[in-house]
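Sample 3 of the quickstart, ligand zinc ion:
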Amino acid sequence: MAEFARCYLMKKAVFVYSDDFQTYKFSENHPFNQLRVKLTYDLLQKSNLLSFQDVVPPRMATDEELTSIHDPRYIEAVKLAGKGLLSKEKASNYGLGTEDTPIFPNMHEASALLVGGTLTAVDYVMNGKAEHALNLGGGLHHGFRGKASGFCIYNDSAVAIKYLQEKYNARVLYVDTDAHHGDGVQWAFYEDPDVCTLSIHETGRYLFPGTGNVNERGQGEGYGYSFNVPIDAFTEDESFLEVYEQALTEIADFFKPDIILTQNGVDAHYYDPLTHLSTTINVYREIPKLAHKLAHQHCNGRWIAVGGGGYDIWRVVPRAWSHIWAEMIDKNNVHGAIPNEWLETWQDASPVELPVTWEDPTNMYKDIPRKQEITEKNKQILLKALYPISHLRKDNHNIG
Ligand SMILES: [Zn+2]
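Result:
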């Protein structure tokens, strides 16, 4: 009976959301713009994919939770900065007040809410109240222990992974498909064999943060638990998905996680103004499919997804992120026209023509002459990245 009640009450998925996510705002013209979360929320509602019963509010992360990852002096500095009480000199020691992460009012509270949103997602899934949970306000993967970086103040995913370890004793697989390297999360668990990180990103040769080399594999006990696949600029859908699917399938099989946490930056899209990859909306339909499948295969369904980068907030992010939620509720088959109601609500605010279909235009960009070379290079780097697994298999084989 109790078991029946539990299953009956378990939702397929919850959508963590509050308009207060908009308080995380650097300035009017800053590329990181949380309006995209609201645009996605609204698109899902107007597409009849999101009902009010599935929306849950985020809570604030406590100072104690934040200090599991962040230096207390840094948290203090963020608090002071948000009240206008931190000197310029001190701020720069903490990466605050820079061009990337300017100071804004109440920045501590706004940042702690994004972290709390991801913790809310964790509790829903680990307490069996939902199989999956989505916090598009999170995904701030560049936040460091004592320093803000790359638009990120607190690192919600790193705090959530610590929380999963301490409260639920869970082994976590973190998967980051943002076009930028998931450095903050990687370094936080670089020596920990109970957290496995996979980051697929544009090579750091010309792109922030510059790390994420294939040879960054972890350290000490954690050696072999950090995976990096830096792909070439101008990589297109097929090659991106080939790398993603092979890497994630093999790593999940090798690591056998209790839960999968995916960071869903959508800045590898051709339209994205900050990166140089050439994927289309199709990859964002496919990425959550495999995460979903593997969560059921290995983790009893436990899957948490967060947002991340994504700087074409009008043409790319709302459609791309909608697919994650649609996948979570087994309705990832949206095609054709974008609801008129959504277009009418937002077209005036948008500086560009909004997309009228879920699909991208077929002639979005000209053929890329180096396509074959790029695909081949990505294949080689993938082999290198997975070397610890194939090596381990060979050893086991020899023993067996
Ligand atoms: Zn990014």
